[in-house]
Amino acid sequence: MSQERYLGGYSPLIVQEMGRRSLDREGRFFRDQLRPGMAVLDCGCGPGTMTVEIAERVRPGPVTGIDIGGEQLAVGRELAEQKGLDNLRLLEGNVYQLPFGDGELDAVFAHALLYHVQEPTRALREMYRVLKPGGVIGVRDLDHGGDLYQPDGPELAAAWVLIERVFGHNGGNVRFGRTQAKRLRQAGFHQIQVTASYDLFATPTERDAWAGYWIDFLGRRYRDLITAQGWASAEEIDRYCAALRAWNADADAFFARARCECVAWR
């Protein structure tokens, strides 16, 4: 296995977007599984805003958030301190080596994690290991095959093909959502419940953040990789970035990101 890293990067735009996530919105498919006193792990917790909400919901049960990008965790620690939460810890960690013994936890949550990792079934088996018999898991991941956006056009379509290629090259899978149930079953889980929802980017602020992120993704962060691999020329990349700017300038533009969700039991 090569070195894991978060493919989305930690630009201010993406960290800000992660910080907007909430248990009532992005985590609502799993929210009702959480009860006071449960021991919970949030894998790939990012800045920890949803982890803090989980800790509030299950208090006094212990909650741990882990993320490979430890520099983000200060956000969640500060928020937990402001809320007076003493049942939460946030750690830099590896999803393949969770800091728990067998069967220690009541619940595991993983939002927008598995489509980034190179060995998702291995990660799920590790989550299975740390759950008690009867413990519950909730996972939510994107599936680009269900995305909706307007206005569309050939340049934007080509941009998304290129983005998918970059993710695949780095070990990710932007169509992972449709495979969740199969992966969970392979890891040993049962009673798998599948749902789906959308994350919507439609307000001017949301569109600015969305377009800005992908312009930076193509035009700066992965520009050298793309051109070195021969997937697109610099001129083509510039056209794709211009198409994203034009999309953002349209007052009626929106992007709806498809998310697949599963709740399952050990």
Provide key terms for this protein.
266 residues; alpha/beta; Rossmann fold; 8-stranded mixed sheet; 23% strand; globular
Extended strand count = 8
Number of domains: 1
Biggest sheet record: 8 strands, mixed
| Poorly predicted ranges | none
Helix content: 40-55%
Radius of gyration: 19 Å
Order of helices and strands: HHEHEHEEHEEHHEHHHE
CATH architecture: 3-Layer(aba) Sandwich
- CATH evolutionary superfamily: Vaccinia Virus protein VP39
CATH fold-level name: Rossmann fold
Q: Overall pLDDT, averaged?
A: 93
Task: Give the class from helix and strand content and strand pairing.
Answer: alpha/beta
Number of helices: 10
Distance between the termini: 26 Å
What characteristic shape results from the CA principal axes? Answer: globular
Fraction of residues in β-strands: 15-25%
CATH class: Alpha Beta
